[in-house]
C-alpha cells in the first residue's frame, strides 16, 4: 500500500470562496482538485494520500477535510491552523474529534518566521500539540537549529520535516540532506522525502534521489522516512517518482521499502482507516 505524505489540493478563487487579497502565485494555473488527484493516484498505483490546502488559498481546511470525510480509507487531511491564537490552541484538546484530521502544517519558509515561532510559543501551541498528540508537519528549509530546539523543548512532540528541509537544486541533493541527519537522534523528528525531483538536475531514474533516501533511512530508520510527491509542482510524471521508490531502491529491504512507501506514515499519524 503506497501512501503519499503530501498533495496540495485547492479550488479556484470565487466570490463565494475567495483567496486572500495578498495570495502568492499558485503552482499551476488550473486548480488541482480531488477528482484529478484520484485519477493520477490510480494511474501511479498510489492507494492513499494526505491532502493539504496551499498557502495561496489561505488558511482553509474545508476542502481537504471534506475529501477525508468522503473517502476516509483513501484521503487524510493536514490542516492549516492559527498557531498564534490562544483561543484556537485550547481547541487542540478536541483535535481527534474530527475524522480524517491527522496533523497541522506550518509553512516557515517566508515572512516573519521568527515571529511566527515566538507567537506559537506564547500562545501555548507547541506545548498543547505535544500534550494532545497532534502531529506537526513543518517546512522550514535550512532551519535545522529550529527543529533541534523544538525537539529538545518538546520531546514527545511529533514533527515531520517537510521536503527534507530542502528548498532548491543549488546544492546536490545528497549533500543537501546531510545537515538533517544530525537530527535523527531525536525520536520525535521524522522526515518527509517529498518533492525530491524538484531538487535534482538529472534524468530518470534520478540516482541521487535513491541515494538521498538511503542516507535518510540509514540515519532515521525506515519508520521515520515518508514518501511524498508534492504533486502540484512535480516536474516529472507521478508514476516515474513512484517507480523510483519501488524499483530503484535496491539497497532497501522489502520491509523498509514498505515502511517508507506508507506504512511508517500511517503509524506516525495514527491513520487506522
From TrEMBL:
Highest taxon in the source lineage: Bacteria
One Pfam family named in its UniProt record: Amidohydro_2
SUPFAM superfamilies linked to this entry: Metallo-dependent hydrolases
Molecular function GO labels: hydrolase activity
Amidohydrolase-related domain mapped to chain residues: 3-263
Name of the protein this chain belongs to: Amidohydrolase family protein
